Amino acid sequence: MRRLTCLIAPLTLLLGAPALAKDKDPAPAVQPQVFQAVVDCRKLTDSATRLACYDASVAALAGAAEAKQVLVVDRATTEKTKRGLFGLSLPRIKLFGENDDVEIDKIESTIASVSSSRDGSVIFVLADGARWKQTEGRDTFAKAGQKIEITKGTLGSYFARINGQSGVRVIRLPQS
After folding, report:
1. Same domain for 85 and 43?
2. Same structural domain, 170 and 94
3. Largest CA distance in the chain
4. 37 and 116 belong to one structural domain
5. Both 38 and 82 in a single domain?
6. How far apart are CA 131 and CA 19, in angstroms?
7. Spatial separation of the C-alpha atoms in residues 159 and 62, rounded to whole Å
């Protein structure tokens, strides 16, 4: 009976933790002060005061954007940027804000050029300039203009399928 109690207590803690975490509200995203000033103008009830607030805060926001102190990025730009960074090892930071939920698991492109590395491995350059090197698998006989699909595998691995063929393991190379 004692063994059963020793097993049940840790299991209760482990199984109960997700339920407790689910009840917590996520931390609100912290907005830059110049942006928050524009949003705060909505609270004003007097039309003339609200308009003056909007005029001043929008001018400050535009000035901050021109000085590159603030950057406004929409979801499409975020996704495009993440596609460009796909396959590179980057530190885990919330580059696109606290609620960064855009996850890229696959990219589709066209092969711009194919070359060989010093060790004889195939290097694919995609239409966007990203360079990928085949590390394992059979010969692909890839050519410029062919479609390529690269998917995220397990433990940081990536697989490339060229014209629907079976996948080969690849790694992303840094830009040269």
Report:
1. no
2. yes
3. 75
4. no
5. no
6. 43
7. 43
Q: What is the mean pLDDT of each run of 10 residues along the chain (176 residues)?
A: 45 45 52 86 90 90 84 75 65 54 79 89 89 85 89 85 87 81
Q: Which domain holds residue 43?
A: 33-66
Co-location of 62 and 39 in the same domain: yes
The number of C-alpha atoms within 13 Å of 128 and in the hemisphere containing its C-beta is 15
Cα(23)–Cα(171) distance, integer angstroms? 39
pLDDT at residue 73, as a whole number: 75
Residue 127 is classified by DSSP as T
120 and 143 together in one domain? yes
